[in-house]
Structures are given as C-alpha cells and as structure tokens.
Amino acid sequence: MNGTLLTEFLILGFSEMPHLQVPLFLGFLCLYMAAISGNLLIMVTVSASPALHTPMYFFLFNLAMVDILCTSTILPKLLDTMVGGRMISYWGCMAQLYFFTWSMGAELLLFSAMAYDRFVAICCPLHYGAWMGPRVCAFLAGLVWSISLTNTSVNTSLVLRLPFCSSNVIEHFFCEIPPLLKLSCAPTQLNEAMAFAADVFLAVGNFSVIILSYGFIVASILRIRSAEGKRRAFSTCSAHVIVVTMYYSTVIYTYIRPASSYSLNKDKVVSVIYTSVAPTLNPLIYTLRNKDVKVALRRLLFCC
Q: Cα(197)–Cα(219) distance, rounded to whole angstroms?
C-alpha cells in the first residue's frame, strides 16, 4: 500500500459532544435529504423546461450535479459515524478525498463561469448570444470538470505517496487534506505547497475573477435609469455574491495555511458550511427564488 502501514482510519467526527449526537444526526440527515431532493429537482426542472435551456440554467444544472457529488461523498459516511461506524478503510478514505476535492474544485470554477455569464448578460447584452452560445457553454463546462479533475488527481496522488505509520485518528468528520497531512510520518512540504497552489488558483484566482466581474456588473447597473430595473438586477446578483463569499472564505481559510495550524473545532464548523450548508442552500438561492424557475416548476408539477 505504497509503504502505508495503516489499513484503516478512525474518523473522530463529533464524538467529543455525545449529548449532541442525536440532534446532529437529525440535522445532517435533513441537510442531506434537502440537498439531494433540491438539486435533483433543479436538474429535472431544467431538463424538462425548454424555457430554461439557457446558459444561466445550464451552469446551474452543472452546479446541482456538483452539489449532489459533494454531499453524497461526505454526508452518508458522516451519518454512519454518528451511529457507530467510525472506521473507514485506507482506500475508502482516499476515494472520499478524491471525490470531495473534485467536487470542491468544480464548484469554485462554476461560480466563476456563472459570474462571467451574468457579466456578459448585463454588461454586453448585444453580444450575449455569440459570447455564450452552446459551444462556448460546453467548452466552459468541459474546462470546469477537467481542471477540477486534474487538481484532485494531483493532490490525491501526493497523499497516496505518504506513509501513515503512527496515529490513525482523523480529527475531522471526513477525509480531508489538512487532517491527513497531520497523520503522516514523512515530510509534507510538497503536499502543503501543492494544496496552497491549488487554493491560490481555484479559490483566490477565481474569487478575483468574480469580484472583477461584479465590479463591471455594478457599474452597469448603476447606469440603469429605471429604479425597478436596478432593483431587479441587484436582486439577481446579491444572493450569488453572498453565497460565493461564504463558500470561498471557508475554503481559503481551510487550505491556504499550513497543516500544522489545523484546529479541530474551528475547522469542523468551517467545513460544515462548504460540505453541507452551501449545497443545501444553492437550490433555494439560485433557482427557487427565480420567477422563471417557479413557473417551470408549476408547469412540471401540473403536467405530472
């Protein structure tokens, strides 16, 4: 096993708070069910409604797939640890790390693609059809999935090279890079450097692109003469900005510092946001508050 002496890990989870196990279990179960049902509803609605076959909803469809991948990678095992199944095999841990890192990278890149779509729609409406045609959207989606796949392949491969020969207790509720690096009995400078580089590119870089895009968007909105037009434009952007800020800040906090500064309690709370809360809120924020989606949902349910 690449020099690895351990064959399984013990996921600590939330065991230090036994009196909260039942409410935490019920809470995460509700989050998981809401995330899966909400994102599946988005995918079905977008697929079945020709009016939603636009670039904006194309990227929302991809975001729903990413959120399902993320929550299905993390939450089932988390729920299992709360009822006693705290052991995870070495390869099971590596698989969880691989798919979680893949979904996280794809989500960060999709936020940028969505911001670019809004930038073109608001700032360059006359060129929207040409700049955001089907081929461009397919190309951007391909970049999102391929770049995130490359990132997770590199970082997971680097973790696979590490020997784990002392403690097997993961001080977290899932297999993530920082707590795994703390368990290695070999130098982890290369792993930390690559995780830092990935965070700078995926989190800081894409967040800068989003901030720049919204800078142009705000400038364009301010030039709109109609107060109603300004209100509608701001309302479609504000929710996106809030969620993006929450998601990016937690990811940057987790990955842009050395593994030696990892803190059990703080990092658990931060990780809950981008593994459970954000995928659950995305359907509500990006689509269910949208008038076009509400109309499509009513038509879909009426036809059924």
A: 32
Structure tokens at 160: 């696979």
Token pair belonging to 293: 């989606």
- Give the chain's largest Cα–Cα span: 68
Other beta carbons within 10 angstroms of residue 296's beta carbon come to 21
Question: Which strand (E) or helix (H) includes residue 169?
Answer: strand 169-170
Number of helices and strands (H, E) in the chain? Answer: 12, 3
268-274 LR contacts (CB < 8 Å, sep 24+): 268/14, 268/172, 268/173, 271/172, 271/173, 271/174, 271/176, 273/246, 273/247, 274/104, 274/247, 274/250
pLDDT over 90 percentage in the chain: 40
pTM: 0.89
- What is d(CA 304, CA 298) in angstroms, rounded to the nearest whole number? 10
